[in-house]
Recover the amino acids of this structure.
């Protein structure tokens, strides 16, 4: 099953920002890694050496192959139960790494944009759980 959209929904902190527990956010359209990861990898091409591996929280995603080919390269998909929920680690061939907040696929667009914007702010030091709660807190205080 192919995603109808061709671009990944990714928002990254500035390249030399070393604060916080995430380097930005990714809002996939589904929980199918084999469908979603190729566009993510393509969107990170200017920021990371060619992707060699993606580490994800196993229970959060549909069953995925251990490896797949994209852009002429094999990429290893490593799912672990101990991987922090709502994060993926994207590791390049030079062992450089990006940690991305994963905004759940069914999130309302305005909420997702808010979370992504917060996660990609240069000085943001929030944890993934805090970032995902930002929207809930904002809605609670507005009522």
């Amino acid at each position: 099953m192919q995603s109808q959209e061709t671009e990944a929904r990714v928002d990254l902190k500035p390249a030399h920002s070393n604060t916080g527990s995430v380097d930005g956010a990714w809002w996939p359209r589904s929980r199918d890694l084999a469908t979603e990861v190729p566009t993510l990898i393509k969107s990170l091409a200017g920021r990371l050496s060619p992707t060699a591996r993606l580490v994800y929280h196993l229970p959060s995603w549909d069953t995925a192959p251990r490896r797949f080919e994209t852009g002429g390269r094999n990429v290893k998909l490593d799912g672990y139960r101990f991987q922090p929920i709502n994060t993926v680690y994207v590791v390049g061939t030079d062992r450089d790494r990006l940690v991305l907040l994963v905004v759940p696929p069914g999130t309302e667009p305005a909420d997702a944009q808010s979370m992504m914007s917060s996660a990609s702010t240069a000085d943001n030091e929030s944890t993934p759980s805090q970032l995902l709660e930002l929207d809930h807190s904002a809605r609670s205080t507005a009522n």
The radius of gyration is 15 Å. Strands lie at 10-12, 24-26, 51-57, 67-70, 73-80, 87-92, 97-102. The longest strand covers residues 73-80.
